[in-house]
Design goal:
The protein has about 70 residues and is an alpha+beta fold. The protein is built from one helix and two strands, in the order αββ. Strands 1-2 form a two-stranded antiparallel sheet. The two termini are about 15 Å apart.
């Protein structure tokens, strides 16, 4: 890791504000329970124009964690 990248990482807020620090835009989501007795859900954007391959990821529950666990 370069020195500049390390300094940027170390100066990043521990709990960044999604809107101001990360420039995320909030969008309403629709959630669908996939199977009864299973903790699997699909979260989809309400706007059809946001249904693009680049806007999705598939993850098992054991790989999802809070960002504070990765610092």
């Amino acid at each position: 890791m370069s020195e500049q990248l390390r300094e940027t990482w170390e100066s990043a807020p521990t709990d960044p504000d999604p809107l101001t620090d990360l420039e995320y835009e909030y969008e309403p989501l629709t959630h669908i329970h996939v199977e009864e007795g299973n903790e699997s859900y699909i979260f989809l954007p309400e706007e059809e124009q946001h249904l693009a391959d680049a806007e999705f990821m598939v993850a098992e529950p054991d790989v999802v964690c809070g960002l504070d666990e990765r610092r």
